[in-house]
Design a protein that fits this description.
about 325 residues, eight-stranded mixed beta sheet, alpha/beta, 10 helices, about 35% helix, Dihydrodipicolinate Reductase, domain 2, Rossmann fold
Length: about 325
């Protein structure tokens, strides 16, 4: 299922914080353009549209579909709205790029994928694996020198849910919806790292999970430790904490992957391979962050053009959502 060769016409749904990164990425494309921004808050939709040179803004997707000749929809709205918006776009015959998670629960996501199958193309915007350092890690692991994985770990640390000098919580200033999400750290943040771990290490099974809430500022989980294993039994741990004194508000990943022939580490945006042929690469966090949006959106457009499978097909993303569900189930965490 391919699309016309002329520039694709896109509607972006959602004008919150993350939408600016989507719009910046779309502006870099010569073969596609956002022609409408949609948000129930029409003032917010207009502000983002005008800031990024988009001609139209609407309060609903139905209005955007009616008034614009669209090819696809980019959904960057709250997770509770995803399924309904995907269905609406599919009913209009529009291909869809949808921010993670595809739906709030695995059951809802499975139902949606089954319903949409074969009608339009559906890609999950799971952009972490498009970050340049994770692309490089994947390349190194596939070269052959790395060998079989023996252990792996990914850690995320942030002070974003601790009050700053003015008494504000940086993460809540940036993403206010964090306050009321019953499923927070794993469902909103570590879902990225679960997806990356699956991509790098192959199929994973959740062995154990411990989740906790470490601040009264939110109702959901803010600390977690997840123990997984590969098909060969190699242990992989993923941990996170959003209330770490002394750490910066913006989280960065710490990665350690040990193979039989090489070791790979990532810390403070410095990526290293430590084995027989040592190599060090340095990244600028802000640039790497935007680059993953650029690459994910570019991948969506290119796969629509050539008809090849998306790297983050909706059905593939169900396996990541299953691990998220396992984390909450095994931990017994309830907000």
């Amino acid at each position: 299922m391919t699309v016309r060769p002329s520039p694709l016409r896109i509607a972006l749904v959602g004008a919150g914080m993350i939408s600016a990164h989507h719009l910046l990425a779309w502006r870099k494309r010569g073969d596609a353009a956002v022609v409408a921004v949609v948000d129930p808050d029409i003032g917010r939709a207009r502000a983002q549209a005008e800031a990024h040179g988009v001609a139209h803004w609407h309060a609903s997707l139905s209005e955007a579909i009616e008034r614009n000749a669209l090819d696809a929809v980019d959904i960057a709205s709250p997770r509770q709205t995803h399924a309904a918006l995907v269905r609406q776009a599919a009913a209009a015959g529009l291909h869809v790029l949808c921010q993670k998670p595809l739906a709030p629960t695995l059951a809802e996501a499975r139902s949606l994928v089954d319903e949409i199958k074969g009608r339009v193309r559906l890609m999950v915007h799971e952009n972490w694996r498009f970050r340049p350092y994770y692309r490089q890690i994947n390349a190194w692991m596939r070269e052959g020198q790395f060998g079989a994985l023996t252990t792996g770990s990914i850690a995320v640390r942030s002070s974003g849910l601790l009050p700053d000098g003015a008494g504000r919580h940086p993460s809540l200033e940036r993403q206010p919806f964090f306050r009321t999400e019953a499923r927070l750290l794993v469902a909103e943040t570590l879902i990225h790292h679960l997806d990356v771990a699956r991509w790098l290490c192959g199929p994973l099974r959740m062995v154990a999970a411990r989740l906790a809430r470490t601040t009264e500022a939110v109702i959901g989980d803010t600390a977690a430790h997840l123990l997984l294993e590969t098909a060969d039994g190699a242990p992989v741990s993923i941990s996170g904490n959003l209330t770490c004194p002394g750490y910066p508000p913006a989280s960065s990943d710490r990665v350690e992957l040990i193979g039989r022939g090489d070791s790979i580490t990532l810390a403070d945006n410095v990526l290293q391979r430590l084995g027989p042929a040592p190599e060090t690469l340095r990244y600028v966090h802000a640039e790497a962050y935007q680059a993953c949006f650029d690459s994910a959106i570019g991948h969506f457009v290119e796969r629509l053009r050539d008809g090849a499978p998306f790297e983050t097909e909706a059905r593939d993303n169900l396996d990541t959502l299953a691990l998220v569900e396992d984390a909450y189930r095994l931990s017994g965490f309830e907000a």
